[in-house]
Amino acid sequence: xxxxxxxxxxxxxxxxxxxxxxxxxxxxxxxxxxxxxxxxxxxxxxxxxxxxxxxxxxxxxxxxxxxxxxxxxxxxxxxxxxxxxxxxxxxxxxxxxxxxxxxxxxxxxxxxxxxxxxxxxxxxxxxxxxxxxxxxxxxxxxxxxxxxxxxxxxxxxxxxxxxxxxxxxxxxxxxxxxxxxxxxxxxxxxxxxxxxxxxxxxxxxxxxxxxxxxxxxxxxxxxxxxxxxxxxxxxxxxxxxxxxxxxxxxxxxxxxxxxxxxxxxxxxxxx
Length: 271
Fold this sequence. Notes:
By secondary structure, this protein is of the alpha/beta class. It has 2 domains: 155 residues, Periplasmic binding protein-like II (D-Maltodextrin-Binding Protein, domain 2), CATH 3.40.190; 99 residues, D-Maltodextrin-Binding Protein, domain 2 (3-Layer(aba) Sandwich). The protein contains 11 helices and 12 strands. The strands form 4 sheets. It has a 5-stranded mixed β-sheet with strand order 8-7-9-6-10, sandwiched between helices. The protein has a 3-stranded parallel β-sheet with strand order 2-1-3, covered by helices on one side. Strands 4-12 form a two-stranded antiparallel ribbon. Helix 2 packs across helix 10 and helix 2 runs antiparallel to helix 11. The longest helix is centred in the N-terminal third of the chain and has 23 residues. The protein is elongated. The chain starts with a helix and ends in a 10-residue tail after the last helix.
């Protein structure tokens, strides 16, 4: 009797797994394998210790939860690396899914496909203790008077205009590394980053870095939303969105966010 119950349970599990796999069958680069790309390197808190295979870090954990919901075991997930710019270019991809904090924009959607959002990002103000000691505050007047910098290729520029409306046009740079270097050199006073990235930069990259405050996502008409990037016309898009919807409905996505991005609550909210 015990053997019969065990066998029946196994058959039920196998049937459920087959139903899940049916959504992705024949749609991945390698049959029976889900290839997921991340950055090179991949940073905290998105991926811990540049090791996505550990499943630790917000995006690494979401990736494995998503894969499981789609019917892939941990052993059936393969990781690869891409640069941010490489991933958003049109054309064939060497991955099924890519998670690198890609903001969903109309221009990018002309070249690649995105899933529904898996994270709506609050924007935070990265500055230095020197600027704070000089009198910078979160008052509208103080924020407008700061010298701002931004990566010209990101959504930070329109968000600066919407949230802060600085007195002077922001200084534009080729990438976020140049922005943080300018901040470190005192060429700019502050910059906007999504909250988890700002936490990492303040703690690891910028000497004397600190966060002046954060704007709640709802403060903007179109909050910065991160989507899973796929090749244009990807047959996996519906499968991914269905799995994401389940993770949202059953609370899994919220639990992962609470675990890996909980420290964000320590940053003052700018009302």
